[in-house]
Amino acid sequence: MRLTTKGRFAVTAMIDLALHSAQGPVTLAGISERQKISLSYLEQLFGKLRRNKLVGSVRGPGGGYRLTKPMSEVSVVDIILAVDEPIDATQCGGKENCYNDQRCMTHNLWANLNARIRDYLALVTLEQLVSNPKVKDIAILQDMRACKQPRETFYVT
After folding, report:
1. Rounded to an integer, what distance in angstroms lies between the CA atom of residue 157 and that of residue 132?
2. Concatenated DSSP letters for 66-109?
3. What domains lie within the chain, and their CATH numbers?
4. Per-residue pLDDT of the chain (157 residues; tens, 9 = 90+)
5. How many whole angstroms separate alpha carbon 84 and alpha carbon 126?
């Protein structure tokens, strides 16, 4: 199974949003600068995340995005599926037509792997990811690099 940049960037952006949400809505420009993800790509991802009710937008001065659920209720699988990223190691995309329009010999192996990956990603929450000290250290370095000067940190503990 291969996770594309869409899924990886969506999870990264959601971690960034969660880490910076204590001061209010977080701008996509800020996430873009810190994570080096193009703003137009983030707009596409956040449109999908908003439609799937993982984030909400706040308009006007001081606007941006915020989480719509507690971090403990947002799993990695929720994020990946919200941006239309398939979790599928089968050759046929789950259609069971892998070999001459029939199920191949290894279909069950890959289908079972899909289930295990999905189950694992469902257990990992945004709260667990942002509470990881290594993630916080990386976020502090990214903030310093983005601002070119140290400033107070504002992370969820």
Report:
1. 10
2. EESS-GGG-BHHHHHHHTT-----SSSTTSS-TBTTB--TTHHH
3. 5-86+125-147 (1.10.10.10)
4. 667 889 999 999 999 999 999 889 999 999 999 999 999 999 999 999 999 999 999 998 888 999 999 999 999 999 999 998 888 888 887 788 877 788 889 999 999 999 999 999 999 999 999 998 888 888 888 888 887 644 444 555 4
5. 18
pTM for the predicted model, two decimal places: 0.84
Please say whether the beta carbons of 6 and 83 come within 8 A.
yes
As a residue count, the chain comes to 157
Show contacts of 97-103: CB within 8 Å, 24+ apart.
none
User: 48: Cβ–Cβ under 8 A, 6 or more apart, which residues?
Assistant: 10, 82, 83, 84
Per the structure block, which two tokens stand in for 35? 């994570």
Round to whole Å and give the CA distance between 31 and 95: 37
Between CA 124 and CA 14 the distance in angstroms is: 13
Note whether 130 and 124 are within 8 A (CB).
no
Terminal Cα-to-Cα distance of the chain (whole angstroms): 33
Position of tokens 């990886």? 8
